[in-house]
Amino acid sequence: MQTKSHWEQIYTSKPTTGVSWFQEHAVQSLQLIEKAAVSKDACIIDVGGGASTLVDDLLVHGYSNLTVLDLSQAALDAAQARMGEAGRRVQWRVGDITQTELAQQTYDIWHDRAVFHFLTEPAERDAYVRAVVRSVKPGGHVIVATFAPDGPDKCSGLPVVRYSPEGLHAEFGSAFKLLQQQSEEHHTPFGTVQKFIYCMCRLYANESG
Ligand SMILES: C[S@@+](CC[C@H](N)C(=O)[O-])C[C@H]1O[C@@H](n2cnc3c(N)ncnc32)[C@H](O)[C@@H]1O
């Protein structure tokens, strides 16, 4: 698969601290997860989590039921190498979120930073939203961050779709209530600034079987 080989190549050729999306701490993601006020044993998935440090910080904050899914095995290997023993407390899954069958009504929190924006085809976005509706529990929270309308038009050399909070919410549909929206100026390791938006929605009706 072309996209998978792209990401495997990125994660095998660069240090995880040297990619444009690197964050020492995923501060806004963590704050939104804390705002969702779920229990520490809530089921949380970081979709396209790559080698993000979010999972490290979630463990430190006491969350115990964590899954990281990513297209790239190399990204997940890098995260586990960084975490050592702590990484054994996380479920790691390699897969394309638009094609992976996740268990039904499983997750209390779905988190995605800088993955949905790569889905430039409506059919891919539909598949993603179907995966959310299927696998998030009714009443669960969905946190998605993408480049803002005045953010870059590419990420990792790939084209992206940029969103306003309203535009991103519209992609998910009326079963999702927009609870919080935030913006972020992300400072890359190269000293540039990338504008992101974050939306936190709640899934009220779970219509798929
Ligand atoms: C820009 S990086 C962001 C990584 C992480 N979320 C973060 O904020 O540090 C995008 C990540 O999404 C993964 N990815 C891209 N397309 C994907 C897909 N269709 N399914 C699952 N993961 C995907 C890539 O391998 C990469 O790790």
Overall description:
- It is a single chain.
- With 209 residues, this protein is of the alpha/beta class.
- Helix content is 30%, strand content 30%.
- The protein contains 6 helices and 9 strands.
- The protein has a 7-stranded mixed β-sheet with strand order 3-2-1-4-5-9-8, with helices on both faces. It has a two-stranded antiparallel sheet with strand order 6-7.
- The two termini are 29 Å apart.
- The model has no long low-confidence stretch (mean pLDDT 96).
Give the number of helices: 6
Q: Could you give the count of β-strands?
A: 9
Main beta sheet:
7 strands, mixed
Bound molecules: S-adenosylmethionine
Approximate shape: globular
Query: What structural category do the secondary elements indicate?
Result: alpha/beta
Q: How much of the sequence is in beta strands?
A: 25-35%
Low-confidence stretches: none
Helix content: 25-40%
- The SSE string, one letter per element, is HHEHEHEEHEEEHEE
Over the alpha carbons, how many angstroms does the gyration radius reach?
A: 16 Å
Quick check: average pLDDT? 96
Q: How are the strands ordered across the major sheet?
A: 3-2-1-4-5-9-8
Taking the alpha carbons of the first and last residues, their distance comes to 29 Å
